Amino acid sequence: IYTFVDPDLGREWARHLLIADISRSDVAIDWEHTEYKWLSPEETTEYATTPGFQADLKKVIGL
């Protein structure tokens, strides 16, 4: 977990990147959420993410 400032947006972000190896794909979510979705690293480009997310993801998973 780390924070960084995006000067273009004048905003501070906290980034939490988590890589997990799971044996089951079902997830129990609590009242704070209505849905979830498993994504491959390649599919993350189809979603709006924080600035620098793709570069950080590549560092973490070694793409």
Explain briefly what this protein structure is:
This protein has 63 residues and is α+β, with helices and mostly antiparallel strands. The protein contains one helix and two strands.
Q: What would your notes on this structure say?
A:
The protein has one domain (1-20, 38-63). By secondary structure, the protein is of the alpha+beta class. 14% of the residues lie in helices and 16% in strands. The protein has a two-stranded antiparallel ribbon with strand order 1-2. The protein has one helix spanning 53-61, and strands at 2-6, 11-15. The relative contact order is 0.21. It contains one helix and two strands, in the order E-E-H.
Keywords:
single chain; 63 residues; alpha+beta; two-stranded antiparallel sheet; 1 helix
List the helices and strands and how they pair.
Elements: E1 2-6, E2 11-15, H1 53-61
Antiparallel strand pairs: 1-2
Helix content: 10-25%
Quick one: how many beta strands?
A: 2
Question: In whole angstroms, how far apart are the ends?
Answer: 20 Å
Mean of pLDDT: 85
Placed side by side, the strands forming the largest sheet appear as: 1-2
Structure annotation, total helices: 1
Major β-sheet, in short?
Answer: 2 strands, antiparallel
Strand fraction equals: 15-25%
Number of spatially distinct domains: 1
* Residue windows where pLDDT falls under 50 for at least 5 positions: none
Q: What class do helices, strands and sheet pairing give?
A: alpha+beta
What is the string of SSEs from the N terminus onward?
A: EEH
- Rough outline: globular
Radius of gyration, Cα only, in angstroms?
14 Å
